[in-house]
Amino acid sequence: xxxxxxxxxxxxxxxxxxxxxxxxxxxxxxxxxxxxxxxxxxxxxxxxxxxxxxxxxxxxxxxxxxxxxxxxxxxxxxxxxxxxxxxxxxxxxxxxxxxxxxxxxxxxxxxxxxxxxxxxxxxxxxxxxxxxxxxxxxxxxxxxxxxxxxxxxxxxxxxxxxxxxxxxxxxxxxxxxxxxxxxxxxxxxxxxxxxxxxxxxxxxxxxxxxxxxxxxxxxxxxxxxxxxxxxxxxxxxxxxxxxxxxxxxxxxxxxxxxxxxxxxxxxxxxxxxxxxxxxxxxxxxxxxxxxxxxxxxxxxxxxxxxxxxxxxxxxxxxxxxxxxxxxxxxxxxxxxxxxxxxxxxxxxxxxxxxxxxxxxxxxxxxxxxxxxxxxxxxxxxxxxxxxxxxxxxxxxxxxxxxxxxxxxxxxxxxxxxxxxxxxxxxxxxxxxxxxxxxxxxxxxxxxxxxxxxxxxxxxxxxxxxxxxxxxxxxxxxxxxxxxxxxxxxxxxxxxxxxxxxxxxxxxxxxxxxxxxxxxxxxxxxxxxxxxxxxxxxxxxxxxxxxxxxxxxxxxxxxxxxxxxxxxxxxxxxxxxxxxxxxxxxxxxxxxxxxxxxxxxxxxxxxxxxxxxxxxxxxxxxxxxxxxxxxxxxxxxxxxxxxxxxxxxxxxxxxxxxxxxxxxxxxxxxxxxxxxxxxxxxxxxxxxxxxxxxxxxxxxxxxxxxxxxxxxxxxxxxxxx
Length: 720
Prior knowledge:
Elements: H1 9-24, E1 61-67, H2 87-96, E2 97-104, H3 111-120, H4 124-127, E3 134-138, E4 144-148, E5 173-175, E6 178-179, H5 185-189, E7 194-197, H6 210-215, H7 220-227, H8 229-236, E8 239-242, E9 257-258, E10 272-275, H9 277-284, H10 314-326, E11 331-336, H11 354-376, E12 384-390, E13 395-396, E14 421-424, H12 425-433, E15 439-442, E16 448-451, H13 460-470, E17 473-475, E18 482-484, E19 486-490, H14 492-497, E20 511-515, E21 519-522, E22 533-535, E23 543-544, H15 550-553, E24 554-560, E25 568-570, E26 575-576, H16 580-588, H17 612-615, H18 618-632, H19 637-651, H20 654-687, H21 696-718
Parallel strand pairs: 1-11, 1-12, 2-25, 2-26, 7-11, 14-21
Antiparallel strand pairs: 2-24, 3-4, 5-6, 7-8, 8-10, 9-10, 12-24, 13-23, 14-22, 15-16, 16-20, 17-18, 19-20
């Protein structure tokens, strides 16, 4: 890592200015353009071709696992939480490393952006997916199209999986016409093969567009996708290996294809990949069909051998990981579905219901088998970096449990009725406020509103819509209470502060509403001939996320392995998903080709694993990093205050709206200037990029400026 000493304040300001211009345009800053000086690298490991440069050279494997909605905290105070009912996993983390429980999502809190924030270390504004698992976008005529966030890394905007797509902008976009840098690149450049198991956008995500795009429209694979899509899904979707340059695993003889990343900083020629179970399984299970941890052949619900589908359970997901690790794929990223649904099509379970408890027991058994198998392979916390987390929490919507003293373990719980409260926004606005403005909504607990015609945020139509939305109240059908429907609102000014405005302006909605977490907001009959609020009685949907609520936005991060302190469960360190990537890169001695939004979690690293400059100035850099997060993170103190101010502005008359929005814009410009200087200092100390040097006076000044900015928005909020 670069270790410069005292290069002068002038160079700091020069670099900060460069980074501010680049980052405020939502681009990835190419760190290769920031000339490293006096780079100190660790001695690479010499095990096979994979050269991870961990501080003492003892990391040989990387295992990254991300859950969908698996909780550390209890949803019912009498019922043990998800992780409490998975002691093999919980004890592994807390006994061998650190479990951070003051860990946060970005906004919006959904699977796709959550996974991508953690994998890349940047927020949605800089990887292109700031909203949901799908997103709407404005067409030139002011109407909207619907695109799927889940698409292969290099795919264009995927219009509901149409082929060919009608919008050629990249789905994963970091700047105009620029594909987001891929997260596997630092590993493959270090000679390490990287496996993806149902991991967002690093694998093929559909048969309708991704398969013909990768294999060719006239290929046998594309023809199979047309004539037998279920088998094609099992064969080609959901599983991939990205190989080091020239590695035989991804050779053409093994059906490998060129791994094309057209905009990768520094280029990416000569790399190949395997796409799909059909081609990966023979390499990681050469002696027969790949079986899960229970000994059953991995197959989908129709009996097709291959990828089981996106609702992946640990007995299958972890079997892929173990087999990859055993067969020359030392870096693996895997996804595991939540345990509170039977499947993606339901039914949903309430906390402590017998089926929920049974499913968590199966999850725990799978992790027990997984850790035993790895240990038998010699893959342990002594030579492996384990990173395990969950994309977000979610909020159970239902009445009280029966019996009242149920604990789920000794006394099963039941809930009747339960289910999210489906809410017809179109009907509520029309019948209660007389607002019949045509709009499209991306339905959610945090609905994105696209007013037809794409009027400006200051247009009277937009203003009336926002003011009317703020007044809506509904009756909670479980409690009978009269409740405010929309808790917070953000238009493009606040969305920019929350890092939710991408390089593709068509994706920016007119308005995002963060609803009461009990409600799922959608369109419907403008006359409310059907109830404008109803319980989702089919029991398929009972867990809401996306909106702003502590049980949704607070999740957990477990890190185990060489260089990680054994702190057990820690609730004192504030972190969010973007901190995961830089922390991993620091522990592995690798670098991304861009500046992160997150920071290295110095507090959990052993002294020898800390960058040299940080190790010798630890207290100063911890203060800088912690204050940076509170100023920059969407759910930091600054972001939470500005979201409340934005809500007041959007709810108010035009004069108040204009005054507050102008203030938010000015404050945002100053915030960006300060955070760009802060991250420049941090990235220099963490990874040696740039020409900064340690300057305690300058770092102290930045900390003070951040405090002033946070206090300024808090004061502004108090005055409203």
